[in-house]
Structures are given as C-alpha cells and as structure tokens.
TrEMBL record:
Keywords: Nucleus, Repeat. The keyword DNA damage does not apply. It comes from Escallonia rubra. Belongs to the beta-catenin family. It comes from the Eukaryota. Promotes lateral root initiation and development, independently of auxin (IAA) and abscisis acid (ABA). ARM repeats lie at residues 428-470, 469-511, 510-555, 554-585, 600-642, 641-686. It holds the Pfam family Arm. Gene3D superfamilies: Leucine-rich Repeat Variant (1.25.10.10), Ribonuclease Inhibitor (3.80.10.10). One of its GO terms (biological process) is lateral root development. Residues 37-83 form the F-box domain. This is F-box domain-containing protein. One of its GO terms (cellular component) is nucleus. It is found in: Nucleus.
Length: 714
C-alpha cells in the first residue's frame, strides 16, 4: 500500500486552477529497483511537487538540479506563487536569474533598499502582495517604479522600521498606479499630506485597510474622506489633532476597527468616537499614557457594544464579547474562532485584530515601560502565545519576536525576568516555539529560535527545552544555509551550553560539528553568527569530553582563524575564551599542545592582549595562562613577544576588573616557571606590577581557568 498525492483541478473560465492536494491510499507498491531500493525518480509528478512544496526556496532549487525531470517539476507555477527574499542578497543580477520562475508570483517579501530596487527585474507583473522591512533607504523613485510595474497590486506593507525617504509623492503614485489596492500599511513617513490621502480616496475604491504607523504628521481631515476604509491604524503617530479626529472620522461609514496605540489620545476623544460613530466596533489603545494615567477613565470606562483594548482591560474578555456564544473559555477565543464556521464580518475583524495586537504587543515589549509585570504575567504572555498559532505568517513572527523581547531585562548582561520566562513555559510556550522552529519557513525558524535562545537563559526553561527535543531542533537549524536562522540557533546552543547537563546532549545531536562548520561557512560578513558559534564552543570546551570532540571536528583551526582574522571584538573575545577552555585540560587530553601547535595561534593571542577592549584582553591572557602549562608553549609564547605584551598588560590593568588582573598575573606567573622567562619578565619591568597586583583586592589563584558564559540577548 502506498500514499500517493493527487492534485485536484478546477476550471475558472478558460484556465485550469490548482486546488489543494489530498492524500489517497492506494493498493500499489512504490516503484522499486532490482535491489528493492526506492527509485525516487519514478515517483508520480504530483508526489514530487508535494515534496517540493515542503521545502524552502533554496532546497527546491538544489533538488531541482538532480535530474531533468525534477528540474522541470521544480519550476512548476504552483511552487512559485510566493517568494521570501529577506534572508538573501537580492540584487538586479539575482532578480534577473529568478525572473524565469517568477511570472506567476503573487506574494513577495523582501528586506532592504537593494532588494527593493531589484524587484522590478523579477518581471512578476501579476504581484498582488508586497511586504518589505529595513526600508529606511527606499526612495520615492524606487517605490513609484514598483507601483507602476505592478498595477495588479492589492496589498503593500513597508515597516515596521521607518521609511524615512518616502514622501507623499510616492503615496500619490501608488494611488494612481494601483487601483486594486485594498491594504496599505506604511511606517515612519515624515508627512502624509492631504493630497496623497485624497488621491487614495479617489483612485483606490477598494481600500479597506490603511495604516500610517509611527509617522510624524498625517492629515486627519483628509483621512475622513477615505469612505471605503474599514480598518485604520495610526499607532505611534505623533502630532495628531484629536479634536479633528473625533470630528471627521466619526463620519467614515464603514470604519469598524481603529488602532491608536502608543499615541497621546485623550479619554474625551475615545468617548466621542464611540458615542458618535455608527460603525466603529473596536478601538485598540495599548500603551496610551493619557488613558492609563486617568484612573477614573480606566476604572469606569463602559460603552456597550463598543470594544476598547488597552493595558488596563482584559483583552481576552473584550475580544470574546465579539461572539454570541459567551459560554466558552475566554482564553481560547482565538483558537475557537479559527475552528468555527466562517463569518465574513467577524473574520475581517479578528484577522485585523491579530495583526494589530501582534504589532502593538511587540512595540510595548521593545519600549519596556515600567510597571507592566502584572499585564505580562496575567495576559501579555498568553496573548503572544495565542497569536503564535495564527495562520498569518507575519503575525506568528511578530508574536515570537515579542516573546523573545518581553522576557529580557538587560541584554548586555544576558538577564531575563524569571517570572515572565516561566509564565511562557507554564502556558505551553516551549512546545509552540519548537513547533514553529520545525516549520520550513525560514522567517518562522529564525524568530522561534531567537525566542528559545532568550528564554533558555532561565535554567528551568532550558531544562524544558532540552526535555522537549529542543537541542536536536537547534542543532539542525544551526546547519541552515540561512544565516539568520543559523545565527539564532547558535545563540540558543550558546545559552543551553551553560548548563553542564546539556553539554553532552548538544554533542550527541551533532551540535559541535554544526557550530564549527558555521565558523567556516560564515567566516566573513557574519559577525553575529560567528560570536554565537564561538561562544557556544567556548562553553562546550569547558567539558573534557566535548573539548576533545571540538578538536576532532576542526574546532582548534576554526577558532584560531577567528582569533587571527576577525576584527569584531565580540568574536575575538569568544574565540579567545574558547581557546582558553580548550587548553585547560592539559592533564586529561592533548588539546593544550594542539592549540599551541596550530599555526599563528600564540601570535594571535599575544596580539589580542593589546586590544582596546577589556573582555578581549582578559580572555586572551587567560588563554595564554592555560597554554603556559605546556613546556613547549611556554617558550613559544615568549618567542612570540608574550613576555613584553603581558608585562605591558599588567602595567595597564591596575584599575581594571579583577578578572583581567588575575589573568594577566596568572599568565606572567605561568611563563616565569622558565628561568629565561623569569629573567625576561624582570628585565621588562614585570616584577613591580605583579607585586602591585598581589597587594590589590584581586584574588589570584594560580590554577587552570575555565569559564562558561551566557550569550547576548536579542
């Protein structure tokens, strides 16, 4: 019996249209060759296409190159209806190469101005949805050309970062060129003037969803002319004249949802909008100080039939009141809606609410205002977890990013709020995040891995991640060809590797080789992934068994390469720390000698003791201290200028951290075991700083040093 996927076909006018495939069990055997091995090239075409659909774009292209038949199937239009270029450098040349596959693309996501410039070369004139981020450098000219080349465009979203170089002129061009537009969300525009908004009202008769988010100035009166709008967001927009808003927006005949989060809207404006607008159903006002500080309004607000979402309201309860059946659990309102019979009006509102809430909660988490512990613990974390289960990919991503952000107290010192982290764990968040990390969509993989990494700073969460199979998932993601995915996965392994109980599991999952391979794969242009990979290897190298495996899979060479060639201090510090930990097992394995014998290793570490960054100098000195326990290394360090460098370091660090003082003194002590080095230390003036260090508050213990650190939080 075999499982065969058949594709249903329907007809729309004269064209055949692919409908979703379904699985059908048939009494026939899968094609086998003479040895009883499956011959994958003889699979039915529909089955192969179904396999392709489960892969990301890069893997589809790789699989397509295996044979002529699969190359033909790999460019099937049904596989290329959407394209996510965010993780890739997409210039005009790359776009031209992709053009042959993009004729039928309907949805495109991109990142950065260079990719925006290249979009027109995809020749995807049937594009219906375009979404871009990191759009600060996109100009009016680029956006106008994109609009002119894609007349069928129905949805355009640019943000959440500011579109600083886009003006009202580009909005007017969009209005004229894209009459089918129904969704327009733009962030960070300096001024959206009346002419631009009136052009949208005139030419885009189907425009129902508008967002001018984090803008400096928006013409309130002109927005009152967009009669088709049903959902409007001005979240974070400044200089709003709320008297004009309450005067003109109440006349919008179709307005159902309004988002004024992170604005200075007044209680009087809220009451006016609700009492005078015939159509307005939901107003989202998260993180609006004027409302939250008015204790009378917050405590007594009541407007039957009109829903207010704010930090002082029970958001689950408010959303649940949209539905006639109030007997169900309010916390399940989002899942109940997704599983219920479809109601067009409710679906519109709930779909918009998911997007608005995911965006608003992420912004609240990023700004981290004081006094919100109760909100996050009582409903904020639960809301983000429910939103992670949305069918909207960008909502899922923002919710995961929100989880990664709201638990962080101090990113520099890798501190998270234990209560918030464990609230996520108690509500099933670890399993949800791991499920997202298993997705074939690389955007979801990256954001889920980031959240897992940050949450794993908490020891209890780290234990839960390991117990639910998270280490294997992260090790697999660390092998990704997508740098963002690999970087976040390496960060997760870095934080998990702090726990002694997780080191062996990471090694068994192939994590050591994956981390070493990352260093070679992204040796240039990937400072973030290199720092995380080196940091994880440093923690793992503190374990004797893991340290030997790190050496076996090429870790010594990889880390020395970083110490020699990388200019980013974070990478230098972690590479030096990893080499220090590898060299700390002199009595039990040969890594100490192996590091010393690696070409350029000692010279690189000596050079790093001259770094302007204390962390780099401390770890480099610690590595030289550990290496000095080997006789050959001791003499080689001196020959590489180590005595002079360490004496200079000892002179300069009298006011530095105790850790730096300890390692500088320890490295000199290690070298002084040799009589020749002792004489050289005295000749260089090294005795005086050693005496001074001995008299200082730093406690120097002349033993081999290990260290395990947490990673940086995002």
């Amino acid at each position: 019996m075999s499982r065969r996927v058949r594709r249903k076909l329907a007809r729309r006018g004269k064209d055949k249209v692919d409908l979703p495939s379904y699985l059908e069990i048939e009494d026939e055997k899968l094609s086998l060759d003479g040895k009883g091995v499956v011959d994958w090239t003889r699979l039915p075409d529909d089955t192969v296409i179904q396999l392709f659909s489960c892969l990301n774009y890069r893997d589809r292209a790789n699989l397509s190159s295996t044979c002529k038949t699969w190359r033909t199937l790999g460019i099937s239009p049904c596989l290329w209806q959407s394209l996510d270029l965010r993780a890739h450098k997409c210039d005009t040349g790359t776009a031209a190469l992709l053009a042959s596959r993009c004729a039928n693309i309907q949805k495109l996501r991109f990142r950065g101005a260079e990719s925006a410039d290249a979009i027109i070369n995809l020749q995807a004139r049937g594009l219906r949805e375009i979404s871009g981020d990191y759009c600060r450098k996109i100009t009016d000219a680029t956006l106008s050309v994109i609009a002119a080349r894609h007349e069928a465009l129905e949805s355009l979203q640019l943000g959440p970062d500011f579109c600083e170089r886009i003006s009202s002129d580009a909005i007017k061009a969009i209005a004229v060129c894209c009459p089918k537009l129904w969704k327009l969300r733009l962030s960070g525009i300096r001024e959206v003037d009346g002419d631009a908004i009136n052009a949208l009202a005139k030419h885009c008769c189907n425009l129902t969803d508008v967002g001018f988010i984090d803008c400096l100035n928006v013409d309130e009166m002109a927005l009152g002319n967009v009669a088709s709008v049903r959902f409007l967001s001005v979240a974070g927009t400044t200089n709003m004249k709320w008297a004009l808003v309450s005067q003109h927006w109440i006349k919008l005949p179709n307005l159902k949802g309004l988002d004024v989060s992170r604005t200075d809207i007044l209680p009087s404006a809220v009451l006016k909008l609700f009492s005078s607008s015939q159509s307005l159903k939901v107003l989202c006002a998260l993180n609006c100080p004027s409302l939250e500080e008015d204790t009378s309004f917050a405590a007594n607000y009541s407007n039957k039939g009109k829903l207010l979402l704010a930090l002082f309201t029970d958001i689950f309860k408010v959303v649940a009141s949209l539905f006639a059946d109030t007997t169900k659990r309010e916390r399940n309102v989002f899942s109940d809606w997704r599983n219920s019979k479809k109601d067009k009006n409710l679906d519109e509102i709930m779909t918009w609410l998911e997007w608005i809430l995911s965006h608003a909660l992420l912004r609240v988490a990023e700004s981290n205002p004081q006094g919100l512990d109760n909100f996050w613990l009582s409903q904020g974390a639960a809301l983000l977890l429910r939103l992670m289960q949305s069918v909207q990919e960008d909502v899922q991503e923002r919710a995961a990013t929100g989880l990664a952000t709201f638990v962080v107290i101090d990113d520099e010192n890798a501190s998270v709020d234990g209560g918030r982290a464990e609230a996520v764990m108690r509500d099933g968040g670890i399993g949800l995040l791991l499920n997202l990390a298993r997705s074939w969509r690389e955007g979801l993989q990256s954001e889920a891995a980031k959240a897992i990494a940050n949450l794993s700073v908490n020891a209890n969460v780290a234990k839960a991640v390991a117990e639910e199979g998270g280490i294997n998932i992260l090790a697999n993601l660390a092998r990704s060809m997508n740098r963002m995915v690999a970087e976040e996965a390496a960060g997760g392994l870095w934080n998990l590797s702090v726990g002694e109980e997780h080191k062996g599991a990471i090694a068994e999952a192939g994590g050591l080789k994956a981390l070493v391979d990352l260093i070679f794969k992204w040796s240039t242009g990937g400072d973030g992934v290199l720092e995380r990979a080196a940091g994880a290897l440093a923690n793992l190298a503190a374990d004797d068994k893991c340290s030997m495996e790190v050496a076996v899979v090429g870790g010594v060479h990889a880390l020395v390469m970083l110490a020699r060639s990388c200019k980013y201090e974070g990478v230098q510090e972690q590479a030096a720390r990893a080499l220090a930990n590898l060299a700390a097992h002199g009595d039990s394995n040969s890594n100490n000698a192996a590091v010393g014998q690696e070409a350029g290793a000692l010279e690189a570490l000596v050079q790093l003791t001259r770094s302007p960054h204390d962390g780099v100098r401390q770890e480099a000195a610690g590595a030289l201290w550990n290496l000095s326990f080997d006789d050959r290394n001791r003499e080689a360090i001196a020959a590489a200028g180590g005595v002079e460098a360490l004496v200079a370091l000892a002179h300069s660090c009298s006011n530095a951290s105790p850790g730096l003082q300890e390692r500088a003194a320890g490295a000199l002590w290690g070298l002084s075991v040799s009589e020749a080095n002792s004489i050289a230390i005295g000749r260089e003036g090294g005795v005086a700083p050693l005496i001074a260090l001995a008299r200082s508050e730093a406690e120097v213990s002349y033993n081999v040093k290990y260290s395990s650190d947490l990673g940086r939080l995002i």
